[in-house]
Design goal:
By secondary structure, the protein is mostly helical. About 65% of the residues lie in helices and about 0% in strands. Helix 1 packs antiparallel against helix 4, helix 2 runs antiparallel to helix 3 and helix 3 packs antiparallel against helix 4.
């Protein structure tokens, strides 16, 4: 008998089953939003830093500087989304993925810079503080569109795995009920 052993054995730990149902979907959505937000937050920082840097070192107009900053942030965000936020998503058809990403990013660019353009040229609000406020507001509105479009069209979810129980049952049951073994009171079918 061993010293210090209670003699009780513990069952080996089993891997946690994936969450299913409404609670599982909500949990996955919250994780996705958090990852999207982390990449997007870093992208916003890149966007604003490049925007202000270009405004300081060049004589470009506000919206042109903003477009440059947005393009840099789009490239940064693609890497973050593909290899962090949506790394478990379908990777086949990367040409299609990149094309859709660029298309929806361009729409987001128009939304984001449309807000800044309207504030700057429509209302004359073009001080550095006002430009940053409307740039940030445009990023926020564009981000809502991007989140919806990227998760729906660009980084598509892989098909759900079928549960093991239906497969096991299908293997145990004959594929064609007519091919089942006849009961004792029935005559066997004659094959032609």
């Amino acid at each position: 008998m061993e010293h210090g052993s209670s003699g009780a054995q513990t069952a080996p730990s089993t891997p946690r089953a994936p969450r299913t149902g409404m609670r599982g979907r909500v949990h996955r959505l919250v994780r996705e939003v958090a990852k999207f937000g982390a990449v997007g937050g870093a992208g916003v920082l890149v966007n604003l830093l490049v925007f202000n840097f270009v405004r300081q070192v060049s004589d470009l107009q506000v919206v042109r500087a903003s477009i440059i900053a947005t393009v840099v942030a789009i490239a940064f965000n693609y890497v973050g989304f593909r290899y962090f936020t949506y790394r478990d998503r379908d990777k086949s058809g990367q040409t299609r993925e990149m094309s859709l990403f660029l298309l929806f990013s361009a729409v987001g660019l128009v939304i984001e810079n449309g807000v800044l353009y309207t504030a700057t040229y429509g209302f004359g609000w073009d001080s550095p503080l006002q430009s940053n406020i409307f740039k940030f507001l445009g990023i926020g509105i564009g981000t809502l569109f991007r989140f919806w479009s990227y998760r729906s069209w660009v980084f598509r979810a892989l098909p759900a795995r079928e549960p093991a129980a239906p497969r096991t049952r299908a293997l145990l049951e004959p594929e064609h009920p007519a091919a089942a073994v006849p009961r004792a009171d029935e005559a066997p079918a004659v094959h032609r």
